Every structure is written in structure tokens, then in C-alpha cells.
Amino acid sequence: MATTNQDSAGILREEILAEARRESQEILNRARQDAQDVLATAAAGADKVREEQLDRARAEAARRSELILATVPVEAGRMRIARVESLLESVHEEARQRLLAHDGFEYREAVITLAADAATQMAGVAYVMKVSEAGRTLLGDGLAEEVTHRVGRSALNVTVSYEPDVMGDGVIVEDAEGRQMWDNRFLKRLERMWPELRRHIAVQVSFVPKTELGGNKQ
Questions:
Q1: pLDDT > 80? residue 184
Q2: Does pTM top 0.85 for this prediction?
Q3: Strand, helix or coil for residue 127
Q4: Closest residue by Cα to residue 194 from 101, 115, 94, 124
Q5: Could you tell me the residue range of the domain that residue 85 belongs to?
Q6: Domain ends where: 53, 69, 101?
Q7: Helix ranges restricted to H, the chain
Q8: Least confident window among 78-82, 155-159, 167-171
Q9: Which end of the chain has fewer CB within 10 Å, C or N?
Q10: Does residue 64 belong to any structural domain of this protein?
């Protein structure tokens, strides 16, 4: 009888242990599955985050590309304007140098023409031509008479004054009372005329269309 009870107890213990093993295995299996589910969810979340980051990067790259492309016409226009200005400045400098060197014209004739031009635009009949003392040799005698003849106005009185403090080639014409003055020295005249000259040059050589520079028409 005692042996039978021991056998029954042993069988019960084995059943309990077996049940415990099954439950343990189920718990372990569920834990593994949960871990796999967590990893899969994390991987999916990481893929989503990575895709979102890529989308943002692509959008930012597209935005920057559009900004760069938008600046191309502006930058090209700026470079073109700078190039035109550089070319015009070189023309201006060449004109200055040629005037200083009396290149391409006869100095005495130029002074007579400029003096006569000034006198025709001023009121009165008496004028003083002020020229640089350094130009006396080049201008010679008979200057006043030739200017008077060139103006062609009756009773015109022109005198020539060689001034040591007059700097630069050309002539300054004043009326006898000193109320009117016309500075026709070469470089002064160039600076007065340059704004209109640069527009004319730019249009004539097709640097810019006529409508772009504006200003007075030739």
C-alpha cells in the first residue's frame, strides 16, 4: 500500500514538473515573439524615420537648387553690367589719354574751335580767353583774331590771357565783366559730356539696348 502511494506521488510530481516546463516554454516563446515584434516595430519605425529624413533632405536640396537657379539670371545680369562698365571705363580712360597727348587732332585748331563755341553761347561782345601758360608756344600769335573770325559776330572783342594758374589743355572763356564763364578745357569738357557719351557709345556698339540705359536720345 505504501508503495502505491509513493508511486502516485511520483507521478503527480512528474506531471507538475512537466506542466511547469510547458508553461516555462510558453512564457519563453511568448517572450521571444514579443521581442521579435518589438524589433520589427523598431525596424519599421527606423525605416519610417529614415524615409522622412530622406524626404526632408530631398525637399531641402530641391529648395536650394531652385534658389541657386533663381540667382543665375540676377548674377549673370550683374556680371554683364560690370563688364559693360569696365569696357566703358576703358573707353573713357583712352579718351583722356588721347586728349592729354593731343592724339588725332591739332591742338591750336581745337582751342580756337572750343573758344568760338563758348563765345557763340554767351551774351555780350567782349570775352577773355584764358589758356595755360604752358600752351603759349603751341598756340602762337593771332589766336584772338581767328576766334573772332570764327564766331562771325560784329563788334566782337576777344583777348587772350595766358594764365600760370590755369591747369590743363583747352580754354576757359569769360565775359569782360566776369559774370559768364565757359570752361572748355579738354578734361572738364570730357567730364561734362561723358554721361551722354557713354550712353551713346554703349548703344552704338550694342553693349546694351537703347531702352536699358535711358537718358536723352542722340
A1: yes
A2: no
A3: strand
A4: 94
A5: 1-101
A6: 101
A7: 2-100, 107-120, 136-139, 143-151, 186-204, 210-213
A8: 78-82
A9: N
A10: yes
β-pairing, 170-175 with 126-132? antiparallel
106 SS3 class = coil
Largest Cα separation within the chain, whole Å, is 169
Q: What are the cell numbers at 203?
A: 548703344
**Cβ count near 134 (within 10 Å):** 13
Q: What is the mean pLDDT of the chain?
A: 81
CA–CA distance, 98 with 105 (Å, rounded to integer): 9
Cα(195)–Cα(4) distance, rounded to whole angstroms?
Answer: 129
- Give the span between the Cα atoms of 101 and 115, in whole angstroms: 20
pLDDT of residue 215: 45
Report the pLDDT averaged over residues 3-21.
69
The enclosing domain of 155 has a CATH number of 3.30.2320.30
> Is 214's pLDDT higher than 60?
no
Question: Which residues have CB under 8 Å from 201's CB, separation 6+?
Answer: 88, 91, 207
With a cut of 80, say whether residue 44 has pLDDT above it: no
Residue keyed to cell 565757359: 182
Give the residues across from 126 on adjacent strands. 157
Q: Does a structural domain hold residue 218?
A: no
Q: Which three cell numbers stand for residue 55?
A: 524626404
